[in-house]
Amino acid sequence: MDANVLLLHVMKNVLPERIHNAEELGRLTVITEPGHVQQYGPDVDVHLVESVQNLEVMRAKVLEILRERRIDRIFAPFELGQSAAGYLRSYFGLPGTGLDVANNFSNKYVMKQRLAAGGLPVTDFRLAAGLHQVPEAADRLGWPVVIKPVIGGGSINVSVIDGPEHFEEFCRTPAAERLRALPVPLLAERFVRMSAEYHFDAVVENGQVLFSVGSRYSSPVLARDSFLGSCILPPDDPTRQRMTDMHAQAVSSLGLDSGVTHMEFFEMPDGLLAGEIACRPAGGSFPECIRMHTGVDLWRACLEVSLGLSPKLELKAEEGVLAHCHLPVSPGRIVEQTSEEELAALPSVVRVDMLRRKGDVVPAHLNSASASAVVYVRGDSPEEAEAAMRRVVEAYKIEIVPEDS
């Protein structure tokens, strides 16, 4: 494909190599941020900005690029680049998802309004322009509340506040300082005590869902105490069927034409609540688990629809239940760790990806998908697959000490 593609690459996010080197990208121009991890070859024109979320800086940078060469398409596969990509497409008349729809999918306050207006059940929410407005919002919603930036990802800067006294304590922490420094408002949501949390991943083209798969997290993401994982539910699972219908309703309510989506659901006594929905592949190893089980490469589908191409979905029959778990990690130096060979020898394990090894230094800031290793297991049912995940977690040992020790 002879195209000039602009990639908005947010700091430390990493594209899979098969996407990073995809021939469809044609002549590639990159706008990224200081501290970016992924490197590019000598033929790639790389521009640095302090923040991809600064729309005026991005507009000026793209104008500078357009004075040198045309831009045919914008590829923005990471959460914090979604609004900027939509704004730039709308401002410069480029094809693809414009600002209105991009904002529906990335601004959590707008998203919740649109989902509720479309008839989907969501937890109660209110806007808090600053941290000092959280108590008023919580008094109306009822404590405890979840607070988060309206634009964010990876559970970064997300906190559960139990009540007024806890809020006062929270306000004296570094986490509160980070929230005060954010250039976006906050969203306060009533905390819901769910019995399970699910995610639903799909490919949409011309407003139609071409592919979808539903999965159950090993435990609710904000409540987990050791590891993050999920198992793909069988096609005939009734919860997967309910998610299929609610996801289609969400896509329609938010106005998506084409894209890859990642949506979350909460199981409540009276049914499912719609959580959030993003228009990009899931983080961590969730797309790889889906690719192993169904044959569908969500990263490639995201690239193809971003470039205006019809996604090539190489579906295969789903066999059994595939699950995966992100094994725990924390900041510091890894001094001891269960080996890849020991993990691979455990029952039901089909693959082990070691992400960090003995001697590695883990950085201070981690997100919800950060891990030391990812292990994939297969069972005949979700219960068997989840039991296999628990065996892996119980067998895994890792010792991490502060870097200066």
Structural overview:
By secondary structure, this protein is an alpha+beta fold. The chain has four domains: 4-104, 3-Layer(aba) Sandwich (Rossmann fold); 124-190, ATP-grasp fold, A domain (Dna Ligase, domain 1); 193-315, D-amino Acid Aminotransferase, Chain A, domain 1 (2-Layer Sandwich); 320-405, Aldehyde Oxidoreductase, domain 3, CATH 3.90.1170. Helix content is 30%, strand content 27%. The protein has helices spanning 17-20, 55-66, 82-92, 99-106, 108-117, 134-141, 164-170, 174-181, 238-254, 286-294, 298-306, 340-344, 382-395; strands spanning 4-9, 27-32, 45-48, 73-75, 125-128, 145-149, 159-161, 186-190, 196-205, 208-217, 228-232, 259-268, 271-278, 321-327, 332-337, 349-354, 361-362, 373-379, 398-401. The strands form four sheets. It has an eight-stranded antiparallel sheet, sandwiched between helices. A hairpin with a 2-residue loop joins strand 12 and strand 13. Helix 3 runs antiparallel to helix 4 (99-106). The protein starts with a strand and ends with a strand.
Descriptive tags:
alpha+beta, 19 strands, 13 helices, 405 residues, D-amino Acid Aminotransferase, Chain A, domain 1, 8-stranded antiparallel β-sheet, Dna Ligase, domain 1
> How many helices?
13
CATH topology of the largest domain: D-amino Acid Aminotransferase, Chain A, domain 1
Per CATH, the architecture of the largest domain is 2-Layer Sandwich
Helix content: 25-40%
Could you state the oligomeric state of the chains shown?
single chain
Shape: globular
Report mean pLDDT, rounded to a whole number: 93
At the first level of CATH, the class of the largest domain is Alpha Beta
Find the count of extended strands (DSSP E, 2+ residues): 19
- Provide the domain count: 4
- Strand order across the biggest sheet? 13-12-9-10-11-14-18-16
Derived structural class: alpha+beta
First-last Cα distance: 52 Å
What percent of residues are in strands? Answer: 25-35%
| CATH homologous superfamily caption of the largest domain | ATP-grasp fold, B domain
Unreliable stretches, pLDDT < 50, 5 or more residues?
none
